[in-house]
Amino acid sequence: MSLVAGPGRGGLGDGQFSQNPKLCVDKHVAYIQSLDQRRDELDYWLTEHLRVSGIYWGLTALHLLGHPDALPRDDLLKYIISCFCDDGGFGAAPGHDSHMLYTLSAVQVLVTLDALEEFEQQIPRGKDKIGRFIADLQNRESGTFAGDRWGEEDTRFMFAGLLALSLLHLKHLVDIDKCVQYVKSCQNFDGAYGVSPGAESHSARVYTCVGTLALAGRLDAADTDALAGWLSERQLPNGGLNGRPEKLEDVCYSWWVLSSMAMIGRLHWIDKDRLTSFIFQCQDPENGGIADRPGDMVDVFHTHFGLAGLSLLGQPGLAEVDPTYCMPKQVVERVLNG
Ligand SMILES: [Zn+2]
């Protein structure tokens, strides 16, 4: 899956906006299908460090668009398994070192493809190995997680670890109470969360902290009203959402803000119509794909998060997304109840 940006741009170029935009389902499907046919471009190889996550973004977007089989399943599965490392984690591409974020993406793809059994046929006790890789990255004193064996800690890695373990039914391998304590220590007076205790509030970190509380079954630990107030202030006059005060709007924040609001039951605190029309204006209506904001180049990351945001907004024609897992709700239900 190529992570090369473009070639299209959001909107109609030259700052023009379509008067009556609509969701371009078929164009987005064709755009995602085209991404793997760009191996002759230098950027394809420069983005190798994100490849497994790219597959997760593309595959999830296709599921939300109602075209789950638009990419060759066997090829995807073979590629994901080729990224598995002896230490139990996954790298971004074959031969890369394991990292928490790619391990989560790989687990999400395996689950979405309903391929965990096939994975274990090739990697005996593979699920347990993944579980141990993740559990070993928890700091047993503070509760938070490192991303890899080099030790950088971040609430993103804690959330990613819990999410992957939850999909594998292996949450018992880590100390969840300590995760909740750590999230509480990252909460600021405005009700939102930063990347570590005392750090500035930021929407993406809010998503990882609220998501951790949701996975722990401890949403009661959030200061819901203050947090929802801070999140709703992220909406700008053009309908888009930003990550923190004084910053530009960006389609990916529509996901991090909206999903957090959905998890705490405050989705109605956002002007849904204005946000929907903002995301529509970020589509390339001719070649498909969604950009971070109108006029910029499209890419698979913003295509995925734009569609996931529209799904949470109840956009007709899209499958329902789960706000915590950022995967099709149907898939999450199959896994958690199965
Ligand atoms: Zn973005």
TrEMBL record:
Gene Ontology cellular component annotations, sorted alphabetically: Rab-protein geranylgeranyltransferase complex
Superkingdom of this protein's organism: Eukaryota
Signal peptide region: none
Reactions catalysed: geranylgeranyl diphosphate + L-cysteinyl-[protein] = S-geranylgeranyl-L-cysteinyl-[protein] + diphosphate
Prenyltransferase alpha-alpha toroid domain sequence ranges: 24-327
BP term (GO), one: protein localization to membrane
GO MF, one annotated term: Rab geranylgeranyltransferase activity
Complex and partners: Heterodimer of an alpha and a beta subunit.
Role this protein plays: Catalyzes the transfer of a geranylgeranyl moiety from geranylgeranyl diphosphate to both cysteines of proteins with the C-terminal sequence -XXCC, -XCXC and -CCXX.
Protein name stated in the entry: Geranylgeranyl transferase type-2 subunit beta
Organism: Viridothelium virens
Lineage: Eukaryota, Fungi, Dikarya, Ascomycota, Pezizomycotina
